[in-house]
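Example 5.3 — FAM20 C-terminal domain-containing protein
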Amino acid sequence: MRVCRHRCLLGAFAMLLCASVALHLLVALFLLSAHHTTCELSQCLFTQPHDDLTSANRSHPAPSHMAAVTGRWKQEVRAGEVNITKLEALFSHALYNLHAPPSHDDDWLLKVRSKGSEGHNEEYICFCIELSDSKEGYDPIQWNTSTETHPPWLRFHLGISRWQLYQHRDANVAVLLQQLAINRIVSAVQKTGGTQLKLLLTFPNYGQALFKPMKQERYEETNVNLFYFSDFERHNAEIAAFHLDRILGFRRVPPVVGRLIDVIKEIKDVTTDHKLARTFFTSPVGNTCFYGQCSYYCSTEHAVCGRPRTLEGSLAAMLPDLSLSPRRTWRNPWRRSYSRSKLALWETTPTYCNSVKKTPPYDQGTRLVDLIDMTILDFLQSNMDRHHYETFEIFGNNTFLIHLDNGRAFGRYSKDEPSILTPLVQCCRIRRSTLSRLRLLSLPEYRLSDVMRASLSHDPLATVAPMLAEPHLSALDRRLDTVLQAIQRCLLQYGDVIYDDIPNYPDQQKSWHGENKLR
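Solution (predicted structure tokens):
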């Protein structure tokens, strides 16, 4: 009896041992498979668009939470490539190729002359090229009055006019973006002013760019408990705002491109900013981090970190120096209160626009419809942080508004903020060219989300992941429909709400009346 019981126990132990071995083998196979998948993901996420970085950086594994969205990212990039034909068709449309009015000499921001040349009217702002020896680490200066000798950043500055920052299909914009994305960085210092960390980068050809580092993952939404004035600035929002502004036909956002930066080689090793250099440290997991000095989010708790030294960011082309082309800062009449408890006057006064329309410079010219253009851009990208705007002083009040500082856009895709549209709703005024392009972007063959996806796919960081998650692109279509509905209500209520800035354009709906349908 005891022998039988002993044999039964041995058999049971043997079965348990076999089961344990089989279970361990299954776990081992699963871990090997997961490791292989993570390595593939790492290679996809951290392939560099330029070869400045070390092989160690390129092979650094990606965060595990990114694996769930990798397949969707690849699918979105392919979708963007398919819809490039829509983008080309859009930019070939007559609404984007209207004959511009003849430009006079005083319609250009800057004018080039050689040192010592005479005969230029003193009303012009002249850019004087100093043909001196170049600084150490910089390219030799071989510029003259011929545009072909100018670096892309200088051609961009010289192309700024009274009406726009650059012309439609300006070939120099693509060259400028490419140089921003790959040029060697010879200097990096912290940009003064503002509430969050940003750097001023300088290149060998004396060009400069404003660098905003990645603060949160692209697919993350803004924390619902944060006020709009406490939100992070997002690098991909700056990039997306440039593309959206161009698609809307405004061309009032300076060119912006994404780039992967080696925070040691391209920032720490080249900075002369000792205050910035003192904020570098190595995180517990071996990543190189820094935080700089600013009003918000500049501390070890809110540091920006490489992986281990590779950092995503946006680079925006700098506008001409203020000593050459001063800019005037204007308070936005629909500025928010920036208070946790108080409301601004426009939020409680439905007729607020009546007083604005009687106040210079909104009482004449195009300033009011310029502001409505900016309002539509901000509503589409859900930017609540438009407290001021700027114009070039030399052009007076007869010029466009520069759409700067869009870092707090594209924070949430699950919720729209109707209060951003208040200037349009209260004033019921819009350019005919803007309305015509909005209607065009609502059509299936030019759908806004499709052309945005295609445009963003050209950015170098699109090889890492799409610049905007799909829900953000879907939100653009939804918000565009909201804008068109608001305009339709204005037409029904007031009839004549269109400022006709393209009287010679042969639009079938040139004559707008309250009964006309927008869609």
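Remark. The longest helix spans residues 2-45.
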